[in-house]
Write a structure and sequence with these properties.
Length: 257
């Protein structure tokens, strides 16, 4: 309802900067949403969803509530390493519900619980770079170290001086922890499916899907497949943003335990 009533684009990551939006009145927006809910509930009214679903409100880096070798399928699309601030995109809802009332509260209450993929979520992570690096499979050190170095050098000459260089190790550390937990809870011969994209920070390309493929292999997954799905970020270009010279895309990773 909030999205429909807002005259501004609230899902800006999926809209061209020049796109316009017509907003609904609160009454018409509420009726529209209620009609959708009624139809959905009518279709599924015979199911007891509370007995079918369990929701754990914390990071998948630690899924201690779930016993090992019990999960038949994992489907996920983790944050992309592209400096898209999920906390900022939910700011309207956070303020409306009183979950947060300022940027600092958003950082402490929301960003601190997310996978590090943006410079705004670096609080508490900056001083742990060496620790994070040591947890990532050593076979990736050469390439990731080179990326971090290039980002450090770019930061010196960029006006914004964004600390992109501090995102790389925390991101792949957290993704390694998550994939290890996924492996632990999965049954043998169970599949994991991941939708992920590569990235270009300051124009420096980061092959995230391929690096995750290596991590999956080192953890013990087998029959790993990485399939290109579609191009990404090509519909419009912003002058202030450097793209990747080889283009960006979304990929489907599939692996078997």
């Amino acid at each position: 309802v909030l999205d429909l009533c807002s005259p501004s684009q609230t899902d800006g990551i999926y809209k061209a900067p020049t796109s316009k939006k017509q907003s609904k009145t609160p009454e018409s927006a509420l009726k529209y949403i209620l009609d959708i809910l009624r139809k959905d509930l009518f279709i599924f009214q015979e199911n007891d969803f509370k007995s079918l679903v369990s929701l754990f409100e914390h990071s998948s880096e630690n899924m201690s509530e779930i016993e090992k070798d019990t999960i038949s399928l994992i489907v996920t699309s983790p944050p992309y390493l592209n400096n898209f601030d999920y906390a900022e995109m939910t700011r309207m809802y956070l303020y409306f519900w009183g979950i947060a009332n300022s940027w600092s509260e958003i950082t402490n209450q929301v960003r601190s619980k997310l996978v590090v993929n943006t410079t705004t979520a670096l609080k508490g992570h900056k001083d742990k770079q060496d620790i994070y690096r040591e947890t990532i499979p050593s076979i990736l050190y050469t390439e990731l170290d080179d990326i971090v170095y290039k980002l450090q050098e770019e930061r010196k000459i960029r006006a914004g001086k964004k600390e992109y260089n501090l995102l790389v190790y925390p991101y792949f550390f957290q993704m390694t922890q998550i994939l290890k937990e996924c492996y632990r809870v999965m049954k043998r011969n169970a599949y994991i499916n991941i939708m992920i994209a590569d990235a270009a920070l300051y124009g420096i390309h980061i092959s995230t899907p391929q690096y995750l493929e290596v991590i999956l292999q080192k953890i013990g997954f087998r029959e790993i497949k990485c399939k290109f799905i579609r191009k990404r970020g090509h519909r419009w270009l912003l002058e202030k943003r450097d793209g990747s010279q080889i283009g960006l895309g979304e990929y489907h990773l599939e692996a078997l335990k």
